[in-house]
Amino acid sequence: MMNRREALQLLATAAALQLAPGKMLAAVREARSVLGEAVGPRTLNAHQFATVKTMAEMILPQTDTPGAADVGAAEFIDLILTEWCEEAERAGFTRGLADTDSRTCAMFGKDFVDCAADQQSEMLRDLGLKIVEDADAARDWEASSGDPRASFYSTLRRLTLTAYYTSEAGATQELHFEIIPDRHEPCVVIQGTKQMERP
Questions:
Q1: Domain parsing of the chain, residue ranges
Q2: Which of 20, 130, 157, 168 is most open to solvent, judged by the fewest CB atoms within 10 Å of its CB?
Q3: What is the pTM of this model?
């Protein structure tokens, strides 16, 4: 039986994705049962939560398979921020959300969640380009800019993908994992009946 800390580590690091499909789903089910149902956001306020939910759904929108919102990605991110991350990491994440709103206000006169879909897409493209620029700088042996926009959005994307692909819907409908038992369950003798032997 896994404890709460082990469950959080499994979910926060996406270590479950490295397991065989059957074991992965079993481990994630156990992890999520240990964590229980969250009653509501504990780190993010209502506005921050709405922003995270909107961004996560744009990263993994609903198509013929569930989207990030369908699997509770925003709830998952709040849970990991609350239970797993250090205070400095939580502060960095919320600063990244505030910076995103500041930038959309400067560009479009509105917070991110109030922007039109094409404006939101433009902002996410900009944040994605910042991640690529930082990665290129690191590859060229230059010091990374440490820009909180890149760090925040990188964390958001990683946690969104982890939330999605460790959910049962994401694993079975998107990754097409087939649930195959990983151990043999022998026939069980029902009281009052005779166990049949193989020839």
A1: 40-166
A2: 20
A3: 0.71
